[in-house]
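Homework help board

Subject: predicted structure for assignment chain

Our instructor gave us this sequence and asked us to write out the predicted structure in token form, then describe one feature. I got the tokens but I'm not sure how to describe them. Can anyone check?
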Amino acid sequence: MHRTKIVMAACAALVAGTLLIVYVYRGSHGSSSTLQASDQEIAEAPYADEPQATAASEAAKPQATPTQKPESEAPNSGNETAAPAPETPPQGSPEVIYDFNRLPDEIRDTLQSIVVAAQSGEIGNMLPVLQENELPPMLSATAVSDPIAFWKKESADGQGRDILAAIINVFSSGFVRKGEGKDVMYIWPYFAEMDLTKLTAAQEVDFYRVVPPQLGVEMKKSGKYTYYRAGIGADGVWHYFMK
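My token output:
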């Protein structure tokens, strides 16, 4: 019986391709003499065990993974066309900024207050935001004594929700920076400061995200922007939101 165990241990070591089992066996019996098996003893192992050994050996082999050809070597159907290069804005156009991280902290704080109030869906929630300014922002070319009542009257539904949507859309667009020093003003949307007849295709998409299509077509004919625009100073003061 002891001899049979030695033979089986030696076969297992050959199948696994490692001496780990030998070390374990040696540690449990405390003698190296019991681990030596002659070639004759290995040869005397039952033939019935050979298929299992072969299967185990095959399972131990790593499966070859087919290599994928680089994209440059992939077959080309011949029907593919190169993507068109993006249009270059006309020379002299202001720099369009989309990265809100380039805004002063004071402006980002103001924007957060505006957007949170607008997303609430209640026009009355805009009143505390307006009151946070040193002076209420201009909402019209003429003075407005009650901004909430004014917005409700101007809105399509009488509740001012389309005005709130316009506020969110305008401040979600790109913007431009104008002026220097204390006169710096950040203006939304950027195309309010551009010739609308010279917008690139991508800029026209931005344009129609803010302006109702029918009104946008008329504005593009004249080249002048007449929809909502907003301005915030570098100190975070909201100066206007008006047409």
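Reply (TA_rk): Your tokens look well-formed. For the description, you could write something like this. The longest helix spans residues 2-16. That's the kind of observation they're looking for.
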